[in-house]
Design goal:
It is found in: Mitochondrion matrix; Nucleus; Cytoplasm. Its EC number is 2.1.1.228. With about 425 residues, the protein is α/β, with parallel strands linked by helices. The protein contains 11 helices and 17 strands. Strands 13-12-11-14-15-17-16 form a 7-stranded mixed β-sheet, sandwiched between helices. A 4-stranded antiparallel β-sheet has the order 2-3-1-4, with helices on one face. A hairpin with a 2-residue loop joins strand 9 and strand 10.
Length: about 425
């Protein structure tokens, strides 16, 4: 644990790196270079033991000796109270006790230490957390820290050598394509980046598409479900983005139909198919509204066979609004019922729908909302609810997975539930997280 802290400059708004110099005086014992290991072992917890500082320093007086530095609060008179082993070494190996001067500057302190030094004294926490996407650090600064946003960006940039650009999510949201707009806090402003995940490379313009590195575990969890023991799995990715579900699934052997309404996401999805050398027969890409894609993909896949054929899985990773698209599945196959009944091995897809909830009873809340949109009760025994992550205090992201049942799939077409008002719909934000 460090007992060294930088000088406090609470309220600093323009980063002055020269203001963080600080000096400490400690004592050290001079020992023959060949006996350093023995002395270090004997002194143990009484060594300097400070992060990023060596316990052994060069001795300016001789190349034959070294200085073993002792903890900062230890004084000469305290040496008499050392453990017996250390006292013995003092008698046999120590050539003398000397004063040693340590100069520390901005480069030594961590980003957290510098931010503690510049934030107001009454700050409850420091805004040091960020998500890294390639060379870009993405922050979600609270408004109370906006006066310090530039200095925070510079500190993050300075202290993370593989980061060249720091951005902050603004309150402005692209309402059509559902991605956060960014403001540059520090760095070169280069938003073109590349990320490696699940054995694939993803290239994209971070300012124009949605990407969340914190979801890599969820991407991998679902992709593992797309690998059946027999036959080839067919996957429909309704809100595919740049392909974090679609590409690993296709690379793993699935046939994927992937869609995104955002032209930039669609462009980079296709670019990443090429980048990862995925066979074009394994993945089919679309740039459509989610509802229209679901209908079109079902039709296109069925046209590849004269017998019943449909998807094994549909992924709907747009947690703010995906539930509102579930009404598309009601009556989706009502003109294909004869094909279904003529096939002895006919099956219907499993739907994986991501969503947010603030309810104290997430299971009941999500099941009620799903049931409202598909127009049928949720079978609790066949439905799985997986907690993906906590997004904000009292707000969680879940994935609800359930099989599409014949009574919903072959139901008569009727007015979409999403056209009706529903109190739960207003509780969701119109954006992916």
């Amino acid at each position: 644990m460090s007992i060294f802290f930088p000088p406090a400059h609470h309220g600093m708004k323009v980063l002055n790196r020269a203001a963080f110099k600080k000096s400490y005086d400690v004592i050290g014992v001079r020992v023959p270079a060949k006996r350093v290991g023995i002395v270090v072992k004997a002194f143990g917890n009484n060594l300097l033991n400070q992060p990023r500082l060596r316990n052994v320093a060069e001795d300016s007086g001789s190349k034959e000796t070294k200085l073993v530095l002792l903890k900062a609060d230890l004084r000469r008179e305290d040496l008499e109270n050392l453990p017996q082993e250390a006292k013995k070494v003092m008698e046999t190996d120590v050539l003398g006790v000397v004063d040693h001067h340590i100069d520390l500057d901005y480069d030594y302190w961590t980003s957290e230490q510098i931010m503690h030094a510049v934030m107001p004294k009454d700050a409850k926490e420091i805004p040091s957390s960020f998500t890294q996407t390639g060379h870009i650090a993405h922050m979600n600064l609270r408004e109370e820290y906006y006066p310090w946003k530039t200095i925070v960006g510079e500190i993050i940039l300075d202290k993370n050598k593989n980061i060249t650009c720091v951005v902050n999510k603004t309150n402005s949201i692209d309402t059509t394509y559902r991605y956060f707009k960014m403001e540059l806090l520090a760095g070169d402003g280069n938003m073109m980046t590349m990320v490696k995940e699940s054995g694939c490379r993803f290239k994209f313009d971070f300012s124009k598409v949605y990407w969340n590195s914190r979801l890599h575990t969820e991407h991998e969890r679902l992709v593992r479900m797309f690998k059946p023991s027999e036959n080839v799995s067919c996957v429909g990715d309704v809100f595919a983005g740049v392909g974090p579900f679609a590409l690993p699934a296709a690379k793993g052997g699935a046939i994927v139909y992937a869609n995104d309404l955002n032209p930039s996401s669609y462009e980079w999805l296709n670019e990443n198919v090429q980048l990862n050398k995925i066979d074009s027969k394994k993945i089919h890409t679309y740039n459509m509204d989610g509802r229209e894609f679901i209908k079109k993909a079902v039709q296109d896949l069925q046209e590849t066979s004269t017998e019943w054929k449909t998807f094994d899985h549909f992924v709907m990773n747009l947690p703010a609004t995906a539930i509102e698209f579930l009404d598309t599945f009601r009556g989706l196959y009502n003109d294909k019922k004869e094909l279904f009944e003529a096939s002895k091995d006919a099956k219907l897809p499993i739907i994986h729908c991501h969503c947010f909830t603030k309810s104290a009873d997430p299971r009941q809340d999500i099941f009620d909302r799903v049931a409202h949109m598909i127009g049928a009760p949720v079978d609790s025994e066949l439905t799985q609810l997986h907690l993906v992550r906590n997004v904000a205090p009292k707000k969680d992201m879940y994935c609800v997975s359930f099989p599409l049942t014949p009574d919903v799939a072959f139901a008569p077409l009727s007015k979409r539930k999403s056209d009706e008002s529903h109190p739960e719909d207003t509780a969701t934000q119109k954006i992916k997280l």
